[in-house]
From TrEMBL:
Aminotransferase class I/classII large domain residues: 26-377
Cofactor: pyridoxal 5'-phosphate
InterPro entries: Aminotransferase_I/II_large, Kynurenine-oxoglutarate_AT, PyrdxlP-dep_Trfase, PyrdxlP-dep_Trfase_major, PyrdxlP-dep_Trfase_small
Organism: Pseudoluteimonas lycopersici
A single cellular component GO annotation: cytoplasm
Entry keyword annotation includes Nucleotide-binding: no
Name of the protein this chain belongs to: Pyridoxal phosphate-dependent aminotransferase
Stored NCBIfam families: PRK09082.1
Family designation: Belongs to the class-I pyridoxal-phosphate-dependent aminotransferase family.
Pfam families referenced in this protein's UniProt entry, alphabetically: Aminotran_1_2
Keywords, alphabetical: Aminotransferase, Pyridoxal phosphate, Transferase
Record's keyword annotation contains NAD: no
Length: 380
């Protein structure tokens, strides 16, 4: 058959996790925590199942969860979305990203993405018959070049996608960046998709500049988050999208025929958790900051050079003191020969910067896992 996605193979996360398993490597590749979800969340989930919340949920999401998200959003970002018309619960951020693109992007239109970008963006754009227009982030700092974004806009541009804290780099957009985005979009009909799945994992006293804080952005944005990141349960696949009523209505047309609804019991569990234990998301930054600091200190005892990590749970390292291999080959070698798995950066780019020698390590891991990785990395 003639493939609809000629550029797509198996994702780098799957490839590297399989290789890690085959070779018994410490897997710091695919981003997922290796520690348990909060006990209270598991108890709530069990209670929800026993209480009979096992059939289809409301298409838009369990009302108690949408209400809890609305209240949490007001508490954290100072603005309360309407739980009925502006919040939709999805099967992970991946579903939300797919739905948002398919809801508003027509065949032949263009979507601007900032490279390196998360791997599910472009295939969703391609399937919509649209074109991803890649604008490079600064190769050293991963800061956006807003003039380059301006220059990439054409009459066909339908959407701009941003991601902060950023996967894979951990870079964060500042207040000045968000104002630039607002200025760029002002007077256009371009829709913003803001991928904020790492919204609560921010460090060094910084503030996450959600698009929801900016009226001129949120009135034209899909803002997407994921409970997988916030509650250490990437396998539960529950996320959500906040968008103005007209955009949410279009979004729901796709959502209802894509999955119809999301796993019902988990929605009840998240509703309780968000409402009863705000400390969890409030302290998540400090929780991961301690892991980041410890891991970085350990990395300084290896030949890998850690880059700054303002947010998220990934540490980029420069391996040029160890090897001349390209990043994909290096990750293969590191797994097979040295027993540690990382993720190369080049699959996140349309055109990777020449000679870039960076790979991504996930530090959402127990100390024992990170210690085992460091012991091996010290032998490079
Ligand atoms: N966006 C980014 C930037 C991510 O890192 C991830 C998951 N790692 C997702 C979206 C997808 O989130 P989910 O697992 O909830 O589908
Ligand atoms: N988002 C995770 C990461 O960046 C991977 C998710 C997946 O495997 N699809 O590592």
């Amino acid at each position: 058959i003639e493939t609809k996605l000629p550029k797509v193979g198996t994702t780098i996360f799957t490839v590297m996790s399989q290789l890690a398993a085959e070779h018994g490597a410490v897997n710091l590749g695919q981003g997922f925590p290796d520690f348990p979800v909060p006990g209270r969340l598991v108890e709530s989930l069990e209670r929800a199942m026993r209480a009979g919340h096992n059939q289809y949920a409301m298409m838009t999401g369990v009302p108690a969860l949408r209400q809890a998200i609305a209240e949490k959003t007001e508490r954290v970002y100072g603005w309360k979305p309407n739980a009925d018309s502006e919040i939709t619960v999805t099967s992970g951020a991946t579903e939300a990203i797919f739905d948002a693109i398919h809801a508003v992007v027509h065949a032949g239109e263009e979507v601007i993405v900032l490279d390196p970008c998360y791997d599910c963006y472009e295939p969703a754009i391609d399937l919509a018959g649209a074109k991803a227009v890649h604008v490079a982030l600064d190769p050293a700092t991963f800061a956006p070049d807003w003039n380059a974004v301006r220059a990439a806009i054409t009459p066909k541009t339908r959407m701009l996608m941003i991601n902060s804290p950023h996967n894979p780099s951990g870079a964060m957009l500042s207040d000045a960046d968000m104002r630039e985005v607002a200025a760029i979009l002002d007077g256009t009909d371009i829709i913003l998709l803001s991928d904020e799945v790492y919204e609560h994992i921010v460090f060094d006293g910084a503030r996450h500049e959600s698009a929801l804080r900016y009226p001129e952005l949120r009135e034209r944005a899909f803002v997407i988050s994921s409970f997988g990141k916030t509650y250490h349960c990437t396998g539960w696949k529950v996320g959500y999208c906040i968008a103005p009523p007209a955009l949410s209505a279009e979004f729901r047309k796709v959502h209802q025929y894509n999955v119809f609804c999301t796993f019902n019991p988990a929605q009840h569990a998240f509703a309780e958790m968000i409402r009863d234990e705000p400390e969890h998301y409030e302290q998540l930054g400090a929780f991961y900051e301690a892991k980041r600091d410890r891991f970085r200190e350990q990395l300084l005892t290896t030949k890998l050079k850690p880059l700054p990590v303002p947010g998220g749970y990934f540490q980029l390292v420069d391996y040029s003191a160890v090897s001349d291999l390209d990043d994909v080959e290096f990750c293969r070698w590191l797994t097979v020969e040295k027993g540690v798995t990382a993720i190369p950066l080049s699959p996140f780019y349309e055109t990777p910067p020449a000679g870039q020698r960076l790979v991504r390590l996930c530090f959402a891991k127990n100390e024992a896992t990170l210690d085992a990785a460091i012991e091996r990395l010290q032998k490079l």
